[in-house]
Amino acid sequence: MAAGVATWLPFARAAAVGWLPLAQKTMPKPPVDKKSRSDEILFVNVSGLRFQTWKNTLDRYPDTLLGSSEKEFFYNEETQEYFFDRDPEMFRHILNFFRTGKLHYPRHECIQAFEEELAFYGIIPEIIGDCCMEEYRDRKKENQERLAEDTEAENAGDAPLPPGATLRERLWRAFENPHTSTMALVFYYVTGFFIAVSVIANVVETVPCRPIKGSIKDLPCGEKFSVAFFCMDTACVLIFSFEYLMRLYAAPSRCDFARSVMSVIDVVAILPFYIGLVMPENEEVSGAFVTLRVFRVFRIFKFSRHSQGLRILGCTLQSCASELGFLLFSLTMAVIIFATVMFYAEKGTKGTNFTSIPASFWYTIVTMTTLGYGDMVPDSIAGKIFGSICSLSGVLVIALPVPVIVSNFSRIYHQNQRADKMRAQQKVRQARIRMAKKGATNAFLQHKEDGGLQDGDSGSTALCVKNRSAFEHQHHHLLHCLEKTTNHEFTDEVTYSEVCMTDSVGFRTSRSTSLSSQQGATTSCCSRRAKRRAIRLANSTVSVSRGSVQELDTLHITKTPAGTQYPQSRSSLNARTEDLKLNCDDYTAAIISIPTPPANTPDESLPNSPAIPGILRNSRSNTYNIQETVKISSL
Amino acid sequence: MDSQAKRVETISARLDAAGSSTDSVEDELELSAVRHRPEGLEQLEALTRFNRKELQILYRGFKNECPSGVVNEDTFKDIYSQFFPQGDASKYAHFLFNAFDTNKDGSVSFEDFVMGLSILLRGSVQEKLNWAFNLYDINKDGYITKEEMLDIMKAIYDMMGKCTYPLVKDDTPRQHVELFFQKMDKNKDGVVTIDEFIDCCQNDENIMRSMQLFENVI
């Protein structure tokens, strides 16, 4: 548990008064707190750094912590100073605000840390001076975007489905996240293949093939092998229709799906075929039908489901809509201006191409985009002068909005990269957090097994009990009170599943592993599992101290290797999961071998637990506590 | 308590001074910028049974965790859940929150916090029982009904989680409630009043003894 939480422990214990009238058993005695909660030695300094300022300076802003009577809570009479347990570097900026009236944002600091400090001292961030406000806003927006991505990545559809998912939900998930199941992946690739086939067929259809025998004219392949192409087209359309109908069926909201861009593309891709089937073999109508075939090329947009880059491009264009609009508008303006000028400049020339202003549009566009086909050229001197001005300005007008579009694209692209990386790391992160949380529970169960809960004389309590911190004592006492209130005990998952299964046999496997081995009724597998659990509990005592409430900054890990199988080095938490899987052979080896403690154990190495009956207990007499501090960086 | 003069700063005051604001912006900022400062040390010393040093220690811890000076219900639930990793402490934390939030404004300030603690740790047995009754009486109408007690009981059993021995069955809380009512409801009218509750607890040795348990918490 974090130390921040430790300050709330007295509150949680006090709130336990609420359980007292309900308790079915008597409450256990609380642990005796030998050393009184002494005042921390408070330095005046902010974490060691001394600051001095006039009182008037602080009084300038009476609605902050420092300017009001709230700071009396932090006063230390002995040293006649105020002490704040906060970041001294940040405090410098806070104090400067009082001195100069302007709050500055330090660029190298984390935005959230800065905001937390401001909140602590009662200063609102809005009064950051104009010089630093831009930077602050930008960083804040970036941070919020990043946090939004985090939550999005967490809620991404990679989470496993609830077990009661209907066929519809499963189908939809398979369509949206193809990598979740093999079937979905197969379907994904098959559709991709058919899109490619369809597009290639459309293209090849128009290539001229060698003419059939007896004819001179070159035929396009589409007419030569019309049956083959027709079959291919039909197959593709059938697959696309099937896919569209399945998606429509599986969609959670059919109206929304029908209106989405991808579904419109799907429909447009397959509609020409069906219209063509329905259309009669009429001369004038089939002309329109030929035009419809053009829409078949939209099938290529179906690839955007398969390609993330395409989606990013679409997203970019969407987000740059205003810049693109500006580009278009300014181009149009320039085209009209220059076309008019060129028309009137060339009006006098004989046989000129610039027959009207709209006709000059073509010249202007070709010149401004620096294409210069040369099909229309000015002849008169004025025309040539204005023509050159036109081409120069074209370069400028087009070059201006392009960097904005490019930077937008780059931002979206990088966001996507980051989101992918975050998703990959998320699983590891969650696994670690879960592991640390389990450690807290296991600490309590371990405490129970060690017999720490007997309200008895101190002589029989094992040494391992005595070595726990006051915080742990009090926390375990609290959990014990809850057990007594409800008349049920905490156990671990293995026992829970065992008890679920062997509900009729009601022997207690949690406490006395020794008893279970002696009882004849125990099946061999249960006793093995009981042994395994004993080792698992012995190994996974994790106690955490000194961190923040929301996230675990550093973890102190107490390791108890019960055999030479476990690496003695400072292994990462991830290695633990493999360590905990024991089989009987390892176990017996553990009994036999007595590992020697490494030379660097700073403190308590637990000697054999005295006088505990049972065969299995002896195994644990070979275990000992090693306290290793493994600093894990802030998650 | 009226003596709690809570001074709440909002951005609107500053914006008025700055001279430009729109209503929606104000509302949004108001929500996020509430800061709370507690009464002075002397007043709190008078109101509670803690001495100056203890109040200082309590406040420092409180302020460290909640720089804005108030705890809202979600933070409260988070904090309380950290102590009960195996089960789900959010429902019980909700009831606790309502018991601490005496002025029903949706947040627990330092005054609420410290006064609650004062009753629980330094109060007389009568006061503690009163507090417990207040906790169980969810709608604060002066009677504990079976439904209220069942809610509380379920919340407590939820904290145990599912890995318990013996297993918590579906009607375990209900049975516990029945036991409770058998003991407490003297006139068998289906509700427990404050007098019945206090009478009965004072006659129960176990409960009286356990009330002394938590006195040395601070």
From TrEMBL, chain A:
<keyword id="KW-0472">Membrane</keyword>
<keyword id="KW-0630">Potassium</keyword>
<feature type="transmembrane region" description="Helical">
    <location>
        <begin position="186"/>
        <end position="204"/>
    </location>
</feature>
<comment type="similarity">
    <text>Belongs to the potassium channel family. D (Shal) (TC 1.A.1.2) subfamily. Kv4.1/KCND1 sub-subfamily.</text>
</comment>
<dbReference type="InterPro" id="IPR021645">
    <property type="entry name" value="Shal-type_N"/>
</dbReference>
<dbReference type="InterPro" id="IPR027359">
    <property type="entry name" value="Volt_channel_dom_sf"/>
</dbReference>
<keyword id="KW-0812">Transmembrane</keyword>
<protein>
    <recommendedName>
        <fullName>A-type voltage-gated potassium channel KCND1</fullName>
    </recommendedName>
</protein>
<keyword id="KW-0813">Transport</keyword>
<dbReference type="GO" id="GO:0005250">
    <property type="term" value="F:A-type (transient outward) potassium channel activity"/>
</dbReference>
<dbReference type="InterPro" id="IPR005821">
    <property type="entry name" value="Ion_trans_dom"/>
</dbReference>
<dbReference type="Pfam" id="PF02214">
    <property type="entry name" value="BTB_2"/>
</dbReference>
<dbReference type="InterPro" id="IPR003131">
    <property type="entry name" value="T1-type_BTB"/>
</dbReference>
<dbReference type="Pfam" id="PF00520">
    <property type="entry name" value="Ion_trans"/>
</dbReference>
<dbReference type="InterPro" id="IPR011333">
    <property type="entry name" value="SKP1/BTB/POZ_sf"/>
</dbReference>
<dbReference type="InterPro" id="IPR004054">
    <property type="entry name" value="K_chnl_volt-dep_Kv4.1"/>
</dbReference>
<feature type="transmembrane region" description="Helical">
    <location>
        <begin position="257"/>
        <end position="278"/>
    </location>
</feature>
<dbReference type="Pfam" id="PF11601">
    <property type="entry name" value="Shal-type"/>
</dbReference>
<keyword id="KW-0732">Signal</keyword>
<feature type="transmembrane region" description="Helical">
    <location>
        <begin position="357"/>
        <end position="373"/>
    </location>
</feature>
<keyword id="KW-0406">Ion transport</keyword>
<feature type="domain" description="BTB">
    <location>
        <begin position="40"/>
        <end position="139"/>
    </location>
</feature>
TrEMBL record, chain B:
<dbReference type="Pfam" id="PF13833">
    <property type="entry name" value="EF-hand_8"/>
</dbReference>
<keyword id="KW-0677">Repeat</keyword>
<keyword id="KW-1003">Cell membrane</keyword>
<dbReference type="GO" id="GO:0008076">
    <property type="term" value="C:voltage-gated potassium channel complex"/>
</dbReference>
<dbReference type="GO" id="GO:0005509">
    <property type="term" value="F:calcium ion binding"/>
</dbReference>
<protein>
    <recommendedName>
        <fullName>Kv channel-interacting protein 4</fullName>
    </recommendedName>
</protein>
<keyword id="KW-0633">Potassium transport</keyword>
<keyword id="KW-0407">Ion channel</keyword>
<dbReference type="GO" id="GO:0005777">
    <property type="term" value="C:peroxisome"/>
</dbReference>
<keyword id="KW-0479">Metal-binding</keyword>
<feature type="domain" description="EF-hand">
    <location>
        <begin position="88"/>
        <end position="123"/>
    </location>
</feature>
<dbReference type="GO" id="GO:1901379">
    <property type="term" value="P:regulation of potassium ion transmembrane transport"/>
</dbReference>
<feature type="domain" description="EF-hand">
    <location>
        <begin position="124"/>
        <end position="159"/>
    </location>
</feature>
<dbReference type="InterPro" id="IPR028846">
    <property type="entry name" value="Recoverin"/>
</dbReference>
<keyword id="KW-0631">Potassium channel</keyword>
<keyword id="KW-0576">Peroxisome</keyword>
<dbReference type="GO" id="GO:0015459">
    <property type="term" value="F:potassium channel regulator activity"/>
</dbReference>
<keyword id="KW-0630">Potassium</keyword>
<dbReference type="GO" id="GO:0005267">
    <property type="term" value="F:potassium channel activity"/>
</dbReference>
<feature type="domain" description="EF-hand">
    <location>
        <begin position="172"/>
        <end position="207"/>
    </location>
</feature>
<comment type="similarity">
    <text>Belongs to the recoverin family.</text>
</comment>
<keyword id="KW-0851">Voltage-gated channel</keyword>
